[in-house]
Amino acid sequence: MRSLIECARKVYYDDAVFYVPEDVYEPAEDTFLIADNIDVNLGDRVLDMGTGCGILAIISAFNGGEVVAVDINPNAVKCAKVNSVINGVSDRISLICGDLFNPIRQSELFDLILFNAPYLPCKSEEHLGKVSLAWCGGENGRAIIDLFIDSAPAYLRRNGRILLVQSSLSNIEETERKMRDRGFDVEIISERRFLFETIALIKAIKVRF
Fold first, then answer.
1. Is residue 53 part of a domain?
2. How many domains does the chain have?
3. The domain that contains 97 carries what CATH number?
4. Over the stretch 8-17, which tens digit does the pLDDT of each residue have?
5. Strand (E) positions, 21-140?
6. Are 15 and 36 a contacting pair, CB within 8 Å?
7. What is the per-residue pLDDT across 182-208, written as a single tens digit (0 to 9) for each?
8. 3-state DSSP call for residue 29?
């Protein structure tokens, strides 16, 4: 734990502190867009997909959620574990290394799934290491988003919610359409506009099987 802390950057959110080494995605505007809008009820089962340094999982635990946090980057899983201990919620978070829903039992259901998805268009040769998995979404930016949408309904209870961050560079309207086709009520609940893109927070509620 000490070695990670010594070589990491500090990121603050409200009264919490998060240590983020260089091989883990550092929370940015997209992360905070979800953080500012997390709607966790006491006792909710929460899945934090692509947990990174664990910030969204830890905020969910602060709010009374029982959290499963997944990341494909093993260094992110180690980092999130350290941050969960530092912030006093390690007993409320289970951390798993794996690719999307692959490590989750098929019988496991959640009330809320959080995903700051890899949404930027990029070519395979642009992968520069594990941290790039947090933002590289394939040539059209949709490779991971589409896989997520296909699998997510099976892991949500009726009226379960998804909070998904996406960029206008990877076709937000397509995401809305696909989610509606899979039985969700969908709305954009927050946006942040930048020079070349808009980052949107999509909320989807599962209303039919």
1. yes
2. 1
3. 3.40.50.150
4. 889 999 999 9
5. 45-49, 66-71, 93-97, 110-116
6. no
7. 999 999 999 999 888 899 999 999 998
8. helix
